[in-house]
Design a protein that fits this description.
307 residues; alpha/beta; 14% strand; three-stranded mixed sheet
Length: 307
């Protein structure tokens, strides 16, 4: 990467509450209260969300599950933000769900009959699912930058992201069967749509074996493998900056329609696309983009309005 672009992407890390991104009082207050996430900004239109429990290998505690929902609900509405990078602090992306807190949650279920305990447990599962579904629904593209182990709920998390990059030392494990349960917050639903082999997904889910970075690349779980964590974060931020330079009307419309079409017939996806673009083709971003191309300029030179 050119030195100038590297400086643009990777200045010293600053809390979002001190940056131009997410300047509302509500977001600033929320940022100061986060306990398991850290919000960073290395580019004016890119938010970097870092899982930040390095002493616990970023195990997902109850604070983290709730804070992911808070952050991505705000990101979805923030016109300043155009792309998000998710990474992990320390030596691991995440060790998965915090087993101690999971045990406490199960122990705290109501001491009533099975139906009432099941109803309470279902509510908790749906809340956990929302922590990752909110990332998938966020109209801003989300890039997972995975280094070291990505275990259990970590695979659920990255499966809800739009782009996945990893470092050479990354490993992936659908760990739940080793814990006596079936994965219940997204892996079994999303991973088969990402990986090109149902047989491979079944093997990983049934055996909990570890998948290393080269295999993750070959099967399509990740789109790139970088030599180490610094190179990984640099690449993830470079991709995010490239996305942020494009028309937000075009980028967010692309994500919405990719997700809509993923689980529907081609004919229905085309109908939805036609309805979407009968409004969005009227954007001023199109003549701006065309003129920039004619003038031999890149999208980063076009002053696209906020969305």
């Amino acid at each position: 990467m050119a030195a100038g672009l590297r400086r643009a992407l990777c200045p010293s890390w600053i809390p979002v509450s001190q940056s131009r991104l997410m300047t509302s009082s509500v977001m600033s207050a929320m940022t100061s209260e986060l306990r398991s996430l850290r919000l960073l900004q290395e580019h004016p239109r890119v938010l970097h969300v870092q899982l930040h429990r390095p002493s616990k290998r970023n195990a997902l505690d109850l604070h983290c599950w709730r804070e992911l929902v808070q952050v991505f609900q705000e990101v979805s509405q923030d016109p300043e933000c155009r792309a998000v990078v998710v990474s992990g602090a320390g030596s691991a992306f995440t060790a998965g769900i915090d087993l101690g807190e999971l045990g406490s949650l199960l122990a705290a279920l109501p001491a009533q009959d099975a139906a009432r305990r099941a109803w309470a447990l279902r509510r908790h599962i749906l809340e956990f699912q929302e922590s990752f579904s909110v990332m998938e629904r966020c109209p801003k593209p989300v890039i997972a930058a995975v280094h070291g182990p990505c275990i259990g709920a970590g695979v659920d998390l990255i499966s809800a992201c739009d782009i996945r990059l990893c470092s050479q030392d990354a490993s992936f494990q659908v760990k739940e069967v080793d814990m006596g349960l079936a994965a219940d917050v997204g892996t079994l639903q999303r991973l088969p749509k990402i990986v090109g082999s149902q047989s491979l997904v079944n093997e990983l889910a049934f055996t909990a074996r570890v998948m290393r970075a080269p295999e993750a690349l070959s099967c399509g779980l990740v789109s790139r493998v970088l030599p180490d964590k610094p190179a990984l974060l640099e690449a993830a931020l470079e991709v995010a900056a490239a996305i942020a330079a494009r028309s937000p009307v075009a980028v967010q419309g692309t994500k919405v329609n990719l997700l809509h079409s993923r689980d529907r017939p081609v004919s229905e996806g085309l109908q939805h696309m036609a309805t979407w673009n009968m409004a969005m083709l009227q954007t001023e971003d199109i003549p701006k983009s065309v003129q920039a191309a004619l003038d031999k300029k890149g999208p980063e030179d076009v002053p696209f309005a906020k969305l």
